[in-house]
Design brief:
It is built from five helices and eight strands, in the order βββααβαββαββα. The chain is α+β, with helices and mostly antiparallel strands. The chain has a five-stranded mixed β-sheet with strand order 5-6-4-8-7. The termini are far apart.
Length: about 300
């Protein structure tokens, strides 16, 4: 029995092909070639597909990049628009706040001006009342002085008339002295009276109370003087331009020191006028009046400077 010989094989392109007497098996080679062609065609189609996909990817990337740029541009424009809108809104809000604050400040200033005007008016009223009080006091003093003077003059005239009538009834033409002799007698009498008065008034001190005058302060000073043992008596004379307080002491008395320490007196100083010594006194009413005038003038100046 004959043993079969295994066919000889040739490996071609990773595929085994039988070898026949005439060479490679034509049928197997043809099949293999067709398979290679099919694989080549498949590869070509696959390559084309990949190329299309690459182009599509490239186009998609470009379009995505453009889209991203457009989106970025739109976002920036929108952001800028929103930022501008926010800035405008913030500006309008700030403007409203400033306007409200200006209105509030104006209202506060108006209220302060109104308050200052009221205070100035009140202080002016107080100052005017004080001035009116001083004027009224001066008018009362003047009226009293005029009344006392007129009453005194009328009494003197009545006395002179009565005396003249009596002398006229008792005197004859022959007994009437010559006019020159009468003048000489009257002058001598006047000199004698003046000397007598001077001797009597050695311890009389006159205190001139200058305006503005406050009758309450004058009364208080006179009352305090009457409590001093050295003071014998006081007499108050009210004149048009001043008041005169005549103080009669038992013995020489340092009145100026007492007056300078008195709480009702603003200033006291000795003066000599026409050979007559007196003490000029300014009451605390003047200090209060000066202070009120200064305060009113200061407030008016402050109000006008705003």
């Amino acid at each position: 029995m004959e043993t079969e010989v295994a066919p000889k094989l040739v490996k071609l392109g990773g595929r085994k092909i039988k070898v026949v007497k005439s060479g490679l098996d034509e049928a197997e080679v043809s099949v293999y070639i067709e398979e290679l062609i099919s694989e080549r065609d498949a590869l070509l189609k696959r390559q084309e597909s990949l190329t299309s996909l690459a182009k599509l990817y490239e186009r998609t990337v470009i379009e995505a990049d453009n889209l991203a740029k457009e989106i970025q541009k739109e976002v920036m424009e929108k952001s800028q628009h929103e930022a501008n809108a926010l800035m405008m809104k913030a500006h309008e809000t700030a403007k409203d706040i400033v306007e409200r604050q200006i209105v509030e400040a104006q209202n506060v200033i108006k209220q302060q001006v109104k308050t200052i005007k009221t205070q100035v008016a009140e202080q002016l009223g107080v100052a005017l009342k004080e001035q009116i009080k001083v004027v009224q006091s001066t008018i009362r003093d003047t009226a009293r002085v005029l009344s006392e003077t007129l009453t005194e003059q009328a009494a003197k005239l009545d006395n002179i008339e009565d005396s003249f009538q009596i002398d006229l009834e008792k005197t004859t033409p022959e007994t009437i002295p010559a006019p020159v002799e009468k003048v000489i007698i009257e002058t001598e009498n006047n000199v004698a009276d003046e000397n007598t008065n001077n001797s009597l008034d050695e311890n009389v001190i006159e205190m001139d109370i200058l305006p503005p005058r406050d009758q309450d302060e004058i009364d208080a000073i006179e009352a305090e003087l009457k409590t001093i043992p050295e003071i014998k008596s006081t007499e108050l004379l009210s004149l048009i331009d001043k008041s005169v307080l005549k103080i009669k002491a038992e013995k020489p008395f340092d009145l100026i020191t007492f007056l300078q320490s008195n709480p009702h007196i603003y200033q006291a100083e000795e003066i000599v006028k026409d050979g007559r010594k007196s003490i000029a006194v300014t009451l605390m009413a003047k200090a209060r009046l000066d202070q009120e005038n200064h305060s009113v003038n200061h407030k008016i100046a402050s109000m006008l400077s705003r």
